[in-house]
Design brief:
Helix content is 33%, strand content 11%. It is of the alpha+beta class and 315 residues long. The protein has 2 domains: 207 residues, Cyclophilin (Beta Barrel); 103 residues, Four Helix Bundle (Hemerythrin (Met), subunit A) (Up-down Bundle), CATH 1.20.120.290. A 4-stranded antiparallel sheet has the order 3-4-8-7, with no helix packed on it. The radius of gyration is 21 Å and the shape is globular.
């Protein structure tokens, strides 16, 4: 997708730069009442898209979530006052979980994937002394680099725990494209390449619509029509009389419903904003707080009129 409107963002988008992007709207679903779809920790807003994607996976394994949380927290401790004691505590907690709760972690892994999962746990255990040594040396960059490596392995364990898509899209929207899982899309722009991870676990219809339009070539050669430095980037509408995507078979405009899966909920809300639902203090599973977030635009005040433009929150 060529984008001459990218000029004001040349400081954050360079050739070969890979950004983690995510669809930030979630879908109203029918799900089992006793299943916890996702989990986000309390505290400050998470600005790391990779962390949000890990927390958004539909799994229910307390030890792996505690392991992830302890490793994610390292960045928080280094960001403020470089609290090396707290960092060491996070690493020690991760070590205890890997040692004492190995079997509990593996219990959520399908049998066919258990050997690979056990090998990942061993890699994590071997990596703990490395990050601990970097902490004792107060080598901030090395600590962050090793933390990233460990969290990649944690993410692989969490992904292996997802055995099936956990719900069905309501019948009213079942005719729309759906993404039951995740997909990776690469954008080629005049300033370089951008990689997007699209999350269908939290937003199967929104994500499915986006992937369908990508596959149709809808975004090819579109310019960015709005660019506000350090705030937002938006693509426009292809040339022609139609506004948005018109299905060539039905000749009708495709409107995508508002999908909001709220943190802690097992049944998402549909077709209504959090403000109108009286839940303005709550957060969706994938909040628009991460650097590089991507979302579907909506015309006016219609919560169910979502269409094609994509907003990017730049790094």
């Amino acid at each position: 997708m060529q984008s001459p409107g990218f000029k004001t963002f040349k400081h954050w988008l360079k050739t070969g730069l890979t950004l983690l992007l995510l669809i930030t709207l979630s879908v109203g679903l029918s799900a089992a009442k006793d299943m916890r779809i996702s989990r986000l920790p309390a505290g400050n807003a998470i600005t790391d898209g990779r962390a949000l994607l890990r927390y958004a996976l539909p799994i229910d394994n307390q030890p792996i979530r505690e392991l992830q949380s302890s490793l994610e927290d390292i960045t928080n401790q280094l960001r403020a006052a470089r609290r090396w004691g707290a960092v060491s505590g996070d690493i020690s907690k991760a070590d205890r979980i890997l040692t004492d709760q190995r079997d509990a972690i593996l219990a959520s892994i399908p049998d066919a994937k258990k050997p690979a999962a056990a090998a990942l746990i061993e890699q994590l255990k071997d990596g703990i002394p490395v990050v601990q040594a970097a902490t004792e040396a107060k080598d901030r960059l090395q600590v962050l680099d090793q933390r990233t490596r460990l969290l990649e392995w944690v993410g692989q364990l969490e992904e292996a725990m997802v055995q099936k898509f956990p719900y069905e899209v309501p019948e009213a929207y079942s005719n729309l494209p759906q993404l039951k899982g995740r997909a990776t899309v690469e954008f080629t722009t005049s300033k370089g390449k951008v990689t997007a991870v699209v999350d269908g676990y939290s937003a199967p219809v929104t994500a499915g619509n986006f992937i369908d339009l990508v596959q149709r070539g809808f975004y090819n050669d579109l310019p960015f029509t709005r660019s506000e430095e350090s705030y937002v980037l938006q693509v426009g509408d292809p040339p022609g009389p139609e506004v948005g995507f018109v299905n060539p078979k039905t000749k009708k405009y495709r409107a995508i419903p508002l999908e909001l899966l709220v943190k802690g909920d097992t049944t998402p809300i549909y077709g209504i904003t959090l403000e109108d639902a009286g839940r303005f203090r709550e957060q969706p599973v994938l909040p628009f707080s991460a650097y590089g977030a991507m979302a579907l635009a909506r015309p006016g005040d219609d919560p169910n009129g979502g269409f094609f433009p994509v907003f990017l929150l730049p790094v």
